[in-house]
Amino acid sequence: MSQLSQVTLEIAANVYFDGKVTSRKVTLADGSVKTLGIMMPGEYEFSTAEKELMEITAGDIDILLPENTQWQTIKGGEQFYVPANASFKVKAKTLTDYCCSYLTE
Questions:
Q1: How many CB atoms lie under 10 A from the CB of residue 91?
Q2: Which residues form the signal peptide (predicted)?
Q3: Which of these, 16, 31, 61, 99, could form a disulfide with 21 (CB 3.0-4.6 Å)?
Q4: How many C-beta atoms lie closer than 10 Å to residue 99's C-beta?
């Protein structure tokens, strides 16, 4: 994915971890929601309310998903899923660009 068409973009940024992670909410014509964001290098823990598809568009991170004991490396062009009502850990090794899709299924 390199482009989104027919969207509504919320101008105000979501700012987390003292500004080291930011994102903006995008609503598509079908009502589905994504956030587009950037993570600075660092370690973070995120929580989910819905199932999420995380697409790393650029950068290099390690993730620790719920119920896993092994860290996994994800690079630009790769993706991973996180279950609803869970938390996961991220070690951003480089400046990382991402797209998060919120899945209602």
A1: 16
A2: none
A3: 16
A4: 18
The pTM of the full predicted model, rounded to 2 decimals, is 0.89
Please write the tens of the pLDDT for every residue from 11-65: 999 999 999 999 999 999 988 999 999 999 999 999 999 999 999 999 999 999 9
Closest CA to 96 of 22, 54, 40, 27: 40
Query: Residue 82: exposed, middle, or buried by beta-carbon count in 10 A (0-12, 13-18, 19+)?
Result: buried
- Closest listed residue to residue 35, CA positions, set 25, 21, 46: 25
Show the tokens assigned to 72.
Answer: 């996994």
- Residue 1 pLDDT exceeds 60: no
